[in-house]
Write the structure tokens for this entry.
Amino acid sequence: MTPARSPLRFIPRRSPPLLVALAISLGAMAAAVVVRGLLAGWDTAFALSVTHFPAFIVATLFAGQRWGWITLATALATSLLLRGGVPSDQAARAGVVLYALSGAVTVFVAATLREIVLRLDEAQAALDRSEARLQMAQNAGDVGLWDWDAESGEGFWSPALYRNLGLPISTRAGVRKLLDVVHPDDRERVRQNNIAAIRNGQMAPCEYRIVRPDGEVRWLLSRGEVLVNGAGRAVRAVGVNIDITDRRHAFEKLRESEERFRALADSAPALLWLSKPDGRRDFVNQAYVDYLGLPYEQALEFDWREALHPDDLQRILKEQVAGEASRRPFRLEARYLRKTGEWCWIRSVSQPRYGPDGAFSGFIGIGIDITDAKEHEHDLEDINELLAERVAAALAERDEAQARLHHGQKLEAVGQLTGGVAHDFNNLLTVITGALDLIQRRPDDVERRDRMIEAALGAARRGERLTHQLLAFSRRQALKPEAVRIDDLLAESEPLLRRAVGEAVQFTLTAGAPQAVAMIDQGQFDAAIMNLVVNARDAVSLGGIIEIRTEACALADGQIQDVAAGDYVHVEVRDNGVGMAPDVLARAFEPFFTTKEIGKGTGLGLSQAYGFARQSGGGVAIQTTAGQGAAVSLYLPRCGEAPALPAPAAAEHEQPPTARRLNVLLVEDDAEVGEMVSAMLVELGHTVVRAVDVKQALAALDRHAELDVVLTDLVMPGGRSGLDLAAAVTERRPGLAVILSTGYAGEAQPIAAETPWPLLRKPYAADALARALAENVDPRSQAA
């Protein structure tokens, strides 16, 4: 709605700017002078005259009272200046005074009129704003105003009421027209409500339906006041009609929801209830009522403490108080007396509920009869125990089946070992037995005898290396790690590697880590490199290329599978041979797996390299593509030490150190080995005392006080090992030298490697035995 303006809307509500006010005042005065000059002659244009008064009024109304006074003063001063000052004639002076008084009255009256007009305009504007807000409120709330004259029957409806009724604005307002749109089922009730209002002078609120011309049914709420005259007769009624359709629909939905909730609650086999914030029941379902056997109202007020079992009363009261105080879900479980006189177990679960404003409204609870469950609880425990026994039996059966499977796998591995290694050992035994046979046939041929002995010894040493490789892979061969430079080891091994490769294959060694140091077993490292080079040799054709590269590198976590993050020495053996297919690569590290022809290899090359690298704290990775060669990488952890170059091994023909004549206690359970070692000791000039187990050795120790050293095997019968004997010897005869000897010590070997006693590995020759005795018995006399 656009607010109406005053008829004198040309009068500004605020005083105009200075220049505008000045222009209005001068313009009004100039117009008055022109009118005076035109009507009375130009010689009297500036004379004091009533024609100036409209200029005073215009200046006051447009520019404000101050400018009215300025205009009056300007006109009076101009006229007096043109006359030469105040006239001396008394009548003329009286005219000047009369002009000034009349002008002042005119300015005052105009200023008053201006103030009145402005206030009326502000009041009209406020009224317009109020009506606009009222209209907006009516539209927003679907509130329609009506006014009805009881004497004339004429009525007034606001636009909002027409909209509520769905009628055009041109429809004549009145009670009859209203009744025409009221729903037929509600029409008589509305009519009687109007008659009662006229008769009693009071109108009660009334809700009814209307049917709009388009057929839509809406709900209206009518409220009003009846005005009566002095005689108490109704003369007028005013009120509002409010569209409450949405509220009515919401009420209907709420009522339907409550009915569905009640129906659902009453059909539930469990006890349901709603409680108020003070704990009193607000609603209970039919199962609740049936359980107590009381009328609904009495069931609402029932105190459950009267039905609680005495043994559960104190516990439940404490748990209930704590649960309700927490305003969180809580559960109770106790025995209650039902109307039949039976004690029943009931488990109740209470959940807090909150109103639309978030305020706590009480709890909603459910109670379930768990008597049967309690009665069967013992049976369930028995069943669980039975199931546990059956599960244990099933697990035992599964473990037994797994054990049989593992045993079968072990037997298969042994079979593979027998088939894979038998060829190599047969070759070695052929050399040894053939050499011994030839020596036996012609013992006088010294040159031939020495050559055959050398061949037999070489074959025996190769058998020793093969045994050590098998033990390293199975992690049974204890390594002797030392801090060494990898590049130096490879430089020493290069001639041997070249001979293994042969002249038909190009072999290069690129040492890129001169200062890189790793803690490894030198012999196992040499064996791993030799295995990788031999595999590469077998994979390349004539004219192929094999290259060994080294570098120092740092690996991130997960960069190489199964290799932890850290600093490593990377040793890579690369060839341009046939490579590996994916299925072959997947089994590359399996022991005894080989793609070579039968009799050409044992399948332990990559397995030994893998076992050595893992046992040294590193890992192995293979990069290969079928037909495009392969690169096998060893990653060995770096350490910070920088040892000197390893000393060259003593030549085989070099004379071993000698010891003084010694009394040796030899403890060996194998008769043939014992005879052979005894012969070696006698050949070296020592005296030998024999024992086959720990018990005999301790007895011999007590009988022979002259003993200088005990040479004992690690693994012996009787349940006690060479380590037990060494400990007993040290305790009984402190200072008596002990040398351990073994070919394979099983689980005891890693422990033996950490003991203070030296370990002599089988097989060994007389020179090695002499060296061990010289280095470990009376070393000071040897140095002298």
Remarks:
- Residues 75 and 528 are 128 Å apart (CA to CA).
- The mean pLDDT is 78.
- Residues 371-441 form the longest helix (71 residues).
- The chain is about 50% helix and 20% strand.
